[in-house]
Structure formats: structure tokens, C-alpha cells
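1st attempt posting a full record on here, be nice pls
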Amino acid sequence: MPEQNQIVAQQREAATLGMWAFLATEVLFFGGLFVSYTVYRHFYFADFAAASRHTDVTFGTINSIILLTSSFTMALAVRAAKMASQRLVSRHLLLTIFLGIFFLVIKGFEYHKDIVDHLIPGPHFNAEIPLHGQIFFYLYWIMTGLHGVHIIIGLAIMSILLGLNARRTASLKNSQAIELAGLYWHFVDIVWLYLYPLLYLVGRHA
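the predicted structure (as C-alpha cells):
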């Protein structure tokens, strides 16, 4: 039995290390985009400031509140898993999934407004924005789009865990699956907390 416990502990450590390694690669990936944003903003400060004023800070703020709340409900799900409370795990996972979907719905409305306002770089780009402001919106669409993909992946993971928990699958007797999902979801939230000021706040009053 001690050897079995040791094997289980090693498996937990390996899985946790694997998740941290994956998140490290994601940090490097988004970090490259953030560096690109910083470099271009340095060279085209006025154009970036003008472009950023066309983002909808109301939508961005609402989604920031939604994701911060979802981080809290995900933390509660992790805590419930450690307490082996399947009912609470399901409740908090459902809340987190609902908030994630709500985020995507709000983002969908925002994207629709962006399209109507001709904020997609190209021949029909909003004429009120200086030329190099298109670079800002290239980065806006790429970064928020990739973040949205990560949200969808997180929702899929949590939905699978919710289903397993509902069927009382033995693998969920160990709270690690929920903990790793929590790490991923918190990472997604942190990325948004960087995107929010860069895209919606910086330069708005410049």
C-alpha cells in the first residue's frame, strides 16, 4: 500500500508538472503577442491611442467582471472537490460554465458592434481611425479571438468533468482533475486581465 500511494503521488506530481509546462508554453505564446503590441504601440503611439478609443469599454468591463467571478466559482469547485462534495462540485462547475458562456455571448455582441463600426482591418476600415490604427485592430482581433478559443476549450474541459462527476466516476475521487482545470481557467482569466487594459484602457484619454 505505501508503494501504491507513492506511485499515485508521483502521478499527481507528473500531471501537475505537465500542466505547468503547458501553461508556460501558453505564456510564451501570448507573451509574443504582448511584445508585438508594445513594440507597435511605441512606434505608432498616437494611432494606437486613437484606435483604442473605438473599443467598447463597457463590453470589456462587463466581461472582466464576468471572468473574475468565474475564477471565484472555479476556486470554489476546486475546494469542493478536495472536500469530496460532488453536489458542490457540480454546482460550482455549472456556475463557471454559465459565466464562461455569458462571456462569449457578450463578446459576440461586441464583435457585431465592431463589424458594424467597420473595425475590421481592410479596404472598408473605419476612415476616422489613422492608418496605423489598423495594426491595433489586427492585434485586437487576433488576441481576443485566441483568448475566445481558450475559453471554449476551458468550457469543454469543465463540461467533461461535470459529466464525469454526475456519473460518480472513480477518477474524480481524486480532486486533481478539477485542480488542473482550475489552473487552466485561472490562466485564461489572467490573460484577459492583461488584454483588458491594453485594448480598452491604455490611451483612451491620450
